[in-house]
Request: fold
Amino acid sequence: MDRNDRNKAARVIGPAGEPLTREDLPPPGTRRWVIRRKAEVVAGVRGGLISLEEACRRYDLSLEEFLSWQRLIDRHGLRGLRVTRLQDYRSPEPTTPAE
Reply:
C-alpha cells in the first residue's frame, strides 16, 4: 500500500445519501454519463475516494468537464447535471456592448 492509498477515504456519502466506496464508482472508461454516475464521481473526488487527477484519467474527462459537473451540482443540485436541460442551467455568455 503506498502513501496515497492510506490517505484516501474508504467510504463517503454518495449523491443519494448512501455509502459510496471505490467499488461503487463507475467503471473505468465509462462513456454513457447519466446524472447518477456524474454525481458519484464528484462525490468520490470531494470525499477523497479518488483524486481529481485519477478521476480525469480514469474517465477520460477534461478538468473543465469535471469542474462544470461540480459547479452545476453546487448551483442547481443533481438536476443541473441533466444533459437535456443544460441550457437552462448554464450561465449566459457575457455580451459586449455594441460600439
